[in-house]
Design brief:
The chain is an alpha/beta fold and 241 residues long. The protein has two domains: 144 residues, Rossmann fold; 84 residues. The protein is elongated, with a radius of gyration of 19 Å.
Length: 241
């Protein structure tokens, strides 16, 4: 019997990229805003070279984090990228540059039409609800956007990879959430749109993985336990199980 559902965030409950841009194009508006702030502060940074360095580090560090090779935090990445050009930021500048990076990306975020109705139905059926999200942002920013969208009250436990230093599909982050929800893997399902992270990681710890279809992240060799196109399909699927 299913007692809990754990969700991914971006691409599952919230749409972070409504224009369906390639990853680095999607991030560029944030990078431009952070860099503009740093230049306003009088720091000397070569714009094109700095941006290329930042995005190269982002790709590498994200890949390593998902493979268990350490954490990735936006504030650290900005600080380290500046240090590569002998620019040392104060704590206040790091915090401000991080917020400037996030602001234009966060402004594009929209909630899917069936997200709130689905969460409400799951809660009505007495299920515990958790969230595990891979993100380099400080979790407080995601909590704020979840609150704006009306999602936050539905969740019993929330984990952001940058806050805990463990990234999907590493088993530790799933185990932390299961322990907090006080449920076993066998009585829990995970719902996400990234098969190689969401589904693989969930299945490795003994959970069933439900793939929310995403044309940009096809399952390939990954075999989800079920697939849905819309969250509204989820309550009936769980009831059958």
């Amino acid at each position: 019997m299913i007692h809990a559902v754990i969700f991914d965030l971006g691409g599952t409950l919230l749409e972070f990229n409504p224009q369906h841009l390639p990853w680095m194009e999607w991030e560029r508006e944030g990078m431009d805003a952070a860099l503009a702030y740093l230049l306003e502060r009088g720091h000397i940074l070569p714009t094109a070279e700095f941006t290329e360095h930042f995005f190269g580090s982002l790709r590498d560090r994200w890949d390593r984090a998902t493979k268990g090779g350490g954490n990735l935090r936006l504030q650290d990445l900005l600080c380290e990228s500046c240090a590569a050009y002998e620019v040392i930021l104060t704590a206040d500048e790091i915090a401000a540059a991080t917020a400037r990076y996030i602001a234009p990306i966060d402004a594009r975020v929209v909630v899917y039409d069936d997200t709130l109705g689905t969460l409400d139905a799951l809660r009505h059926h007495g299920l515990k609800i958790g969230l595990i999200s891979n993100t380099m942002w400080p979790g407080e920013f995601h909590r704020q956007e979840m609150a704006r969208a009306g999602l936050l009250p539905y969740f019993d436990h929330i984990l952001f990879s940058s806050d805990v230093g463990i990234w999907k599909p590493q088993p530790g982050i799933y185990q932390l959430c299961l322990e907090a929800l006080d449920v076993s893997p066998a009585e829990t399902v995970f719902v996400g749109d990234m098969p190689e992270h969401d589904i693989v990681g969930a299945q490795r710890v003994g959970m069933r993985g439900i793939y929310k279809r995403n044309d940009g992240n096809l399952p390939g060799a990954v075999c989800p336990d079920a697939e849905i196109s819309h969250l509204a399909e989820l309550p009936a699927l769980i009831e059958r199980w």
